[in-house]
Specification:
This protein is of the alpha+beta class. It is built from 9 helices and 32 strands.
Amino acid sequence: MPRGPEVPVQVWVDNELFQADQTLLVEQCGFFRGLFRSGMREARASVVRLGALSAGGFRTALRVLRGERPELAAAADDELLQAVECAAFLQAPALARFLEHSLTSDNCSLLCDAAAAFGLRDVFHSAALFIRDGARELAAALQSPEARAYVASLRPSTYVAVSTHTPTPGFLEDASRTMCYLDEDEDAWRTLAALPLEASTLLAGVATLDNKLYIVGGVCGASKEVVEPGFCYDPDGGTWREFASPHQPRYDTALAGFDGRLYAIGGEYQRMPMSSVECYDPGTGCWSFVADLPQPATGVPCAQARGRLFVCLWRPADITAVMEYAAQGDRWLPVAELRRSQSYGHCMVAHRDSLYVVRNGPSDDFLHCAIDCLNLATGQWTSLPGQFVNSKGALFTAVVRGDTVYTVNRVSTLVYAIEDGTWRLQREKAGFPRPGSLQTFLLRLPPGTPGPVATPLPEL
């Protein structure tokens, strides 16, 4: 919805004068909304004085409210504290969300303590989850007893995988039709839950949203008949439910859980690639069409960084194009392009301000992976030094948790640490004991007895 006309207002903060748009402040901040709509004399004033805030924090707040993305990840401690104080005092949800998306292992403990002190519950919760998933020293750095206790009460995210399955008749038992999770303490994959008999993970979109797993658009049969319903798994109750499928039947679609909604991006139907994109609102249970991709595409790699959704498209003449979906304007925006030889297999993951595009290479060497890194702040591409052993697609199932990348194949689960833009092999765990292509993701599993160890099955 377009904003109303700009109404200039002067704001004095800590002896510094800021020129601002009153309409923007009223729309984005509960404090100014209450001030300018109160009917009091101050509501008609063209000058506002805020003695309780810092000029630096208010400057950051204005930049965020105007749609800018200041670099908070590397900001000094004082700047972060001032931004938290402003978000709380001004009652500015946009600034609070920006703080959540700026969490890193360098600032999460500080932001967690500050959010606890100023009552920013969403920032506090997000920072606590980040710390729970990270190294133990992150929790040790917390100053607030409340924060320490809250972090300890949370469940860490767990690495989960499901291999390729098609619907199974009820009279046939298939022990392999399960999701499994990695028990890192015991170095074993354990069974989490059986798939519904009607569900298919073959060419399906798989994504998580609000700690639930969603499966959309799998197929069955040589004719690639699309499985009609979608399936949602809730780990808290260990239950599955069906939900509506997209308006346009599609398979080999990319599914992304982003900003409280699911996005089914591109895909194929009756062997024709599509550019259409649909959005699912779990609150209403309804799908709606949003802006099309710039081109038809299947199996689109997608990733989220700093609260932004990105996809990677292949174009003729060996061009890799990164696009961003701007939900506010419902449009796809070009971000960057890279000329690289295309080859079999690809994915994209995000860490901090960087997107990592993974593909086979060099040339037709399918036993290695090449990784190109796009820095979103500078727009510059770099190639990671060295080649990573692929071994049947390990890196094409990459998942990032904190500063760690999880990859898996039948031989091993490889865990990398991201340090200064490079991936360093940190440790090696058990491989996934089932054949077929894999889809991997993170879920926060409830406490309780672990499932049985997943038994190895032969290759088909």
